Amino acid sequence: xxxxxxTEYFENTYMPKMHRYGKLIGxxxxxxxxxxxxxxxxxxxAIPDWGKxxxxxxxxxxxxxxxxxxxxxxxxxxxxxxxxxxAFLSGNIxxxxxxxxxxxxxxxxxxxxxxxxxxxxxxxxxxSVLINVTILTIGVILGxxxxxxxxxxxxGALNYLLPALFGALLMQFGIKDIKYAIGMLLYCCxxxxxIYLGVFSWLPSAANWLPIITxxxxxxxxxxxxxxxxxxAAAAAEKKDE
Amino acid sequence: xxxxQIANSIPMWVACGIPVCLIIFQSLLFMSKAxxxxxxxxxxxxxxxxxxxxxxxxxxxxxLVILSGMLSLLVTVGGPVGWxxxxxxxxxxxxxxxxxxxxxxxxxxxxxxxxxxTALAMAVWxxxxxxxxxxxxxxxxxxxxxxxxxxITGGSTKRMGIISGAAIVAxxxxxxxSHLIKANADVGFYFSKNAVAAILGALFMxxxxxxxxxxxxxxxxxxxxxxxxxxxxxxxxxIGA
Lengths: 242, 241
Known about the structure:
The structure holds two protein chains of two kinds. By secondary structure, chain A is mostly helical. In chain A, helix 1 packs antiparallel against helix 3. The longest helix of chain A is centred in the first third of the chain and has 38 residues. The mean pLDDT of chain A is 90. By secondary structure, chain B is mainly α. Chain B has two domains: 154 residues, no CATH class; 86 residues, no CATH class. Chain B has a two-stranded antiparallel ribbon with strand order 1-2. Chain B starts with a helix and ends in a 5-residue tail after the last helix. At the A-B interface, helix 1, helix 2, helix 3, helix 4 and helix 5 of A face helix 2, helix 3, helix 4, helix 5 and helix 6 of B.
């Protein structure tokens, strides 16, 4: 396939199919997640206090409701549409879906944003879901008895695995444009300092979305502007040569 | 029946097994469609296998973190619900908080008071109701966001690459910053163990990238080696609070 055929296949054959599956499974996913609470109610008569459930929902919505919208928007440019369908249904996005799909792309040597990149990211993400479910299933079968025997040192050390993972990932992807990466990191650090100082306390759960949303969109805008300036400079240089 | 007996009963295993099966089904379906498409556009089988291996290796560490998070859910809401919630939609951070919000309304403090059937139902309903917003918004906005992105890039692959590249570095920068900057009411800002781990993670990754530039086979283990080494060293070193 040449490049046009590839794009045409991708846009007209592959993507429409994936959009259909993604939406359908998303809706089914929402519905089936109600099965456990319904079984609790029907089989065991374990019924929530209906008068107090709205208050619980509103408390939760106040804490997380903004993220329902901000996270899909923030992650879209990394996950793409197919990745979005998968990642939000399977959860654990920052700590698992994003790292695994991007490492899959690195290892396969494909560029993010291309058709190949998108396919490889989807495959990588699917693998990470399957492994996550497998490990959780083994864990839950072994049960609390075995798991609680894990030495406290091991459980404590696991707290440092995610920050180490993020540091390593930033090195992996930031090293290609080290100035941009350092700039982004400084920006986010300043933002977190301001958040802790209470500057953004008027925004709902700001610490959870403000840095990522503004960094992602600010970064994209910056890079696109730099690129179009480069293009213009190149075009101007070409004209001069003529 | 006692609340924890209910939570760990066979009907609950079946009820929670259905959503878990759906997530497995989605992964297998999307993987097979993406593999078919890879073949169609001429990606080599070797490339696809490399991606699978890299993702599998990368998955192990974070899975263990999620597993350790499941420990606390096993005790509070039972095996089946903990297992399902961390396989579908949930994240380690969210589930415990949501369950706690639910039980608090009926006067049960999660992890401290004994669970009652009503509190269990409150916990599960709250976890479900407060998490579906993510799926609903993500599912119904994906194609719209794709159209917006398409407009911005004008269909140019180069611009798409710039966008994804810029976004991924920004995203990891914000994750790292959230661990570098820690503060609490008592001491204000402090240098945390998490910050040590993030810095060491970056440092070890740099070293691994240098080493694997010579030994190509090693490269898919870079991330795992860097993150485990950083984790162990952080736990041992007497730096950070």
